[in-house]
Write a structure and sequence with these properties.
By secondary structure, the protein is α/β, with parallel strands linked by helices. It has helices spanning about 5-10, 35-40, 55-65, 80-90, 100-110, and strands spanning about 15, 30, 45-50, 70, 90-95. Helix 3 packs parallel to helix 4 (about 80-90).
Length: about 120
């Protein structure tokens, strides 16, 4: 699924993205607030959905090769998180919606779970 479609569906605020970000392909969506869980199940071409708005979420996404980070449930995102996303070239999105809603909407559109999906 194209990242553009996800951004439109969830009414995301784009905090950091290259010019061609809309064409990025997202194959998996994984949600967690514990970055140790993300390190265990993360995959490339994944959208990391988290309520953690610290730079650690962006750093973890970089380690696992995630395409983008979507921060949910928060009113504001610290500038240090946005700056790290810029430095590491990670797409950073924000949607002030519950994590459950974000996951449900993406599941309905056919995004796969990185834990149970065998293909990479």
């Amino acid at each position: 699924m194209k990242l553009k479609k996800i951004c439109e569906l969830l009414d995301c605020e784009i905090l950091n993205a290259p010019k061609n970000y809309e064409e990025f392909e997202i194959k998996y969506a994984g949600a967690a607030d514990l970055m140790s869980d993300v390190l265990a199940f993360g995959k490339p071409k994944m959208l990391l959905i988290t309520g953690l708005n610290s730079p650690q979420a962006v750093r973890t996404a970089s380690v696992i090769g995630a395409t983008a980070v979507l921060i949910v449930r928060k009113e504001s995102i610290p500038e240090s998180t946005v700056e790290l996303a810029k430095d590491l070239g990670i797409v950073l999105l924000h949607a002030n919606i519950p994590m459950f809603k974000a996951c449900g909407e993406l599941y309905k559109l056919g995004l796969k779970d990185p834990i149970t999906s065998e293909d990479t």
